[in-house]
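Known limitations

Files may contain more than one protein. Parsers should not assume a single record per file. Below, a two-record file is shown to illustrate correct handling: read the sequence, read the token line, then continue until end of file.
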Amino acid sequence: MAEAYVKRKAVRKIRHRGRVSQIPIYVGKQLRFFIYQSDWKVLPMAAIVAALVSMVIRKDFFLTMEGSLKGAFALACVAIWNGCFNSIQSICRERPIIKREHRSGMHISSYVAAHMIYQFVLCLAQTSLSMYVMRMMGVAFPTPGFMTRWMIVDVGISMLLISYAADMMSLFISSVAHTTTAAMTVMPFLLIFQLVFSGGLLPLPDWTRPLADYTISNYGIRVIAAQSGYNETPMVTAWNTLYKMRDSEIGGTVTLGQILDLLGDKDNAFLASHQDLEVLRPFTVGEAAEILTAADEVLHFSDREITPALTLREMLTALLQMEGLEALWSQTLVPATEESAAVTAGSVLESLLEDKGMQAALDQEVSSTLTLGQMMESLGIGEMVEEMKDEQLNQAVTLGEITDFLVQSEALQARREREFTFRTTVGDLLDLFGEENVQAAIEQRTAEASYNPDYDRTVANVLKNWLMLIAFALAFATLSVISLEMIDRDKR
């Protein structure tokens, strides 16, 4: 009887001794944990976290540099958070059971492989739910995608790999920790390390930057920032800050001497580096004519009158009122008699202007209107310009030549104490230089300064970061196996 019992126990012990055959058994065990021990709660938690993050990133994600980096950091945080909570207690909570089953024939590699399969499916469900919630919350994923036909799928793959790598990291922590309390104590420090040393939004000192290469968050932020086109979008923070200062007043009082001293300062790095900057480049006659022609299309100065049309009345009236001709008009033409006063040239002209019979003749135009364009045409300016179009009008004038002239000018030096007071607003300066031009220049310059080669939108860059996340997941899974293989040394 006892012998038969031992044989049945031996049969039961070696029934599933193959590593592959043990995997589905432990996958089924994890599914029962999911249903009966409320492990399913991680799914609604993931949806809530995705909704909260969506409210923050939906306005400028994929649209600006700041929005792309902020979105990449936020999504990496979501994925790491989900992955860590999935498995941080999954091994340590059943450590005594694992020890007994290992002694009775359980393969640690099969047990960890089952966890890898189950946790991957769980991460896939969380990621799919998160992507759906983000779409419903108004995050505008552009189409088409970069690696696939849909950008939401591209970002989803990245979040899945980040979440799975964080899941395997927590699985390793759970395999090392002997109790759930110890595992939950370690997890906050683990999350802080991942987020602080991510190398994303938080700038790192030089000596700590190598630590970023050992964080999942670093590669997660890189891949999502690359997919969202970080380097291809404008940087808007500087412009938005300047625009909010439109009503801010700027100005003050300076003396001419202060300005001249500033221009003559040899230690001024800006002036020293721009001495050869051409403020006025050389122009040919043809180039100057093209500029004037383009300006004439807007200002129409060729249609401006040089001499207006004049009537005989206007000419005679102008002659009477012209200074310097008083002696002429006072000349006596007919001497005075007892019956009549003397007749002067001026009185004759005045009588002529008042004569009713002469009004029609006086209103006749004696000269026509002459415009600037007509005068230039009559002088043959167009033909002269065509013949001399390659002639150079001026020499180039550099910033250094201008500053030297101003500083060495005796007339300006003699007026060093003269004060200049100016007051204006930022908005007036923007209007002066053109708001759109200033915005384009600031956004372009700040984008160039913020360029990061780690965020290049290339297939090679995306694949490299994906492979690094996969390597993290496999490395932590391997460490979990190694750690659990030594479970029999646990004396408790």
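...continuing to the second record:
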Amino acid sequence: MRYMTMPPMQAAPPQNVPFRQLKTDRNLWVWLGLSIITFGIYSIIVWYTMAEDINMTAQRDGKKTMNYLLVILLSMVTFGIFMIVWMHMFSDRVGNEARRRNLGELVSAKDFWLWYVLGSLIIIGPFVYMYKVFNAMNHINGSYNQYGA
């Protein structure tokens, strides 16, 4: 009598595995260099992808960060005021998501106002802010890649 062997069963993947892996290697120096070389186009791409990433990673909060290309257009109409409001809200949402994931206080709306706005008086402030945002997004995306939403 011949016994038929069944192929080994594969374990079902966890339900919260991310659909795709998000970028975790954003770097201030690469951003600065490529933004200069591309006359700012790379910076637009980075902000666009970060807005999309935070929408994916922080979907549990029920909010949606506006598309960055639309933000640029609305900023032109409002003489830049819309961009300031959007960056405040983006920073706050990133900070809230970092705290929700137990990553600590990586960035907040306070950092936007202190480093990006007031820090521009000492020239390096916006770069410190960008470093903090990149660091926060790298950690949040890494957590998302590992644990899902």
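Parsers that stop after the first record will miss the second one. For reference, the second record is described as follows. The helical segments are 28-37, 41-57, 68-77, 81-100, 109-117, 125-147.
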